[in-house]
Amino acid sequence: INAFSGPVLVTVTDEYAILDGDPNPPSVTFYVRQGELGQTNLPAGTYRVAYQVGYRWFGEEVGFGEYCTAGELEDPLVFDFYMNGQWASTSSFKITL
Q1: Cβ(92)–Cβ(77) below 8 Å
Q2: What residues form DSSP beta bridges with 2?
Q3: Which of 45, 48, 58, 82 supports an S-S bond with 89, CB 3.0-4.6 Å?
Q4: Angle CA(21)–CA(69)–CA(97) in degrees, nearest 5?
Q5: Radius of gyration over alpha carbons of the chain, in Å?
């Protein structure tokens, strides 16, 4: 994640767990300071990405509060894993917010 527009709080959630109705689907949430890059490694799967671009951070409990622009990527991201003999390939995405 490239936090171009401001500090960003990103939540990446397992799409299939959401579709299965899991009340607590597996997810990872991380904060990226403005002007910096953040990354996470995920197992192969399909994921929804939600974000908040904020202006003032009030701490872990409140986050950005009402001082943010929230959104979600329109399409889920699909992370694949391929093996070809001893070579492994994975998916990678770069998102600028």
Answers
A1: no
A2: 37, 96
A3: 82
A4: 90
A5: 15
